[in-house]
Structures are given as structure tokens and as C-alpha cells.
Amino acid sequence: MSTDSQLRLVWVYPDLLSTYGDRGNLLILAHRAGLRGLPVASVEVRSDQALPVDGDIYLLGGGEDGPQSLASQRLLADGGLHRAVDRGAVVFAVCAGYQLLGNSFYAKGTECRGLELLDLTSDRGPSRAVGELAGDIDSRLGLPRLTGFENHGGRTHLGPEVYPLARVTTGIGNDGQTEGAWRGKILGTYSHGPALARNPALADLLLRWATGSMLPPVDDAWPDALRKERLSAVAS
Ligand code: GLN
């Protein structure tokens, strides 16, 4: 965490990367930090602005193909996200934001260069993956089942340098088998919804990575009820 002990949340390019309620991820992180008495500063950085490098958690959302390739070009030119990662920042990326962290992805039929922060590539699938997404998360992360909503045309193939975030039980995720990826303090997922409203334990993992400390438990009756409802909807 930064020296002034405020948790700095950086929402990357909301003008390009913010579909299906992804802004909720920023709100949930700020809310859950606040419940633990952690002071938070949220910064929204448009794609025509320089990315601050002193953030603690960087959030990238989903986007259609055009905005996605523009976002990738601008992030590569800016270089700030790489510098932030080098200083140990946490990155949480959804769908288009997740794909562009990889080595390459397809947008509008063209192969685009990614940021090479995660060892993965994305290409196009036979059909669009739309609907509920659920999976059993990598046990090393100690999280309950992932639940979310996916809507993407791409399929993602993981290289040896990353771990799958989850094994898919409902939906497609990366390729029908695995969903999302993580390495170090960078984590990507196809789960919209927004992901952190539906997976508050995932929000707490990001907060733990950013602060380097355990967090006291909070009353999760409401998000637990939402999770139960969504997970039972896919089980039936
Ligand atoms: N454009 C990407 C795809 O279709 C990402 C879509 C999204 O972010 N929802 O695969």
C-alpha cells in the first residue's frame, strides 16, 4: 500500500473498458475496504490521460473489439501499467481487459498485440459465449466457487507461466475447460456481473494482496444470498 496508507484504486480507461456493470468492481472494492476501516482513494483514468504508476489495485473491464484494441495500443504506448506491476501493484481484469493482458488477441478479425503481462493468447471461438459462468477456483487461492456472467467471442489459451483461475462447471470461460488466469498479483477472468459483487471473497483476495495483511470478516449475508441464487440457477 502507498506510503500515505490510502489504498489507491485505479480504474483503467472507463471510456473504453466498462461493459456489463464492471464499474461495480471498483465500488465493491472501495466498500469492502471501507468496512475494514481502510481509507480509499479511487482514480478514474481515461484513455487520453497518463496512467498513474503509484496505484495499489488496477481494474480493467470488458469492451467491444474496437475499444479493446485501442485500449491495448494506448496502454502499450503509456507503459504505466507495466511500471505499476513492476512495483508490485495488483491487477484485476475482466474479459476484454483480461484478453489484452495476454500476448495477443483478436479484435475485428485482426490479431492485436497484448501487454504480455500474462502468458496467454486469445483467438476467436466457433460461437459467442453468452450466459452464466461458474467454476471451481484454484484451491491455492482458497476461494469459494466462481459465479459470473460471460459475453465474449474470444477463446483464451494459457501458456505455462500462468495458472487457470478456475475449472469450468457452467459456461465456456477460456475454452470450456478452464476459466480466467492468475500469476503473482495479476488476475483475469471472463466473469462480468460485476465479478466482485458476485464473488466478494475474490474482492477480499485482491485487498489482501494489496495490503499484505489479513482482513477481519464482514457480514456477507446479502452477497451470500445473491451467490446462492445465481449458483442454484445454474445447477438446475
Ligand atoms: N471483444 C472481446 C470478445 O468478444 C471481449 C468482449 C467483452 O469484453 N465482453 O471476446
TrEMBL record:
The active site is at C95, H192. The keyword Cytoplasm does not apply. GO terms for biological process: cell wall organization; cobalamin biosynthetic process; peptidoglycan biosynthetic process; regulation of cell shape. It comes from the Bacteria. Its EC number is 6.3.5.13, 3.5.1.2. The keyword Hydrolase applies. PROSITE patterns: GATASE_COBBQ. It catalyses: L-glutamine + H2O = L-glutamate + NH4(+); beta-D-GlcNAc-(1->4)-Mur2Ac(oyl-L-Ala-gamma-D-Glu-L-Lys-D-Ala-D-Ala)-di-trans,octa-cis-undecaprenyl diphosphate + L-glutamine + ATP + H2O = beta-D-GlcNAc-(1->4)-Mur2Ac(oyl-L-Ala-D-isoglutaminyl-L-Lys-D-Ala-D-Ala)-di-trans,octa-cis-undecaprenyl diphosphate + L-glutamate + ADP + phosphate + H(+). Substrate binds at R128. One of its GO terms (molecular function) is carbon-nitrogen ligase activity on lipid II. Residues 9-199 form the CobB/CobQ-like glutamine amidotransferase domain. Pathway: Cell wall biogenesis; peptidoglycan biosynthesis. HAMAP family: Lipid_II_synth_GatD. Belongs to the CobB/CobQ family. GatD subfamily. Forms a heterodimer with MurT. PANTHER family: DETHIOBIOTIN SYNTHETASE, LIPID II ISOGLUTAMINYL SYNTHASE (GLUTAMINE-HYDROLYZING) SUBUNIT GATD. The lipid II isoglutaminyl synthase complex catalyzes the formation of alpha-D-isoglutamine in the cell wall lipid II stem peptide. The GatD subunit catalyzes the hydrolysis of glutamine to glutamate and ammonia. The resulting ammonia molecule is channeled to the active site of MurT. This is Lipid II isoglutaminyl synthase (glutamine-hydrolyzing) subunit GatD. It comes from Planosporangium mesophilum. The gene is gatD.
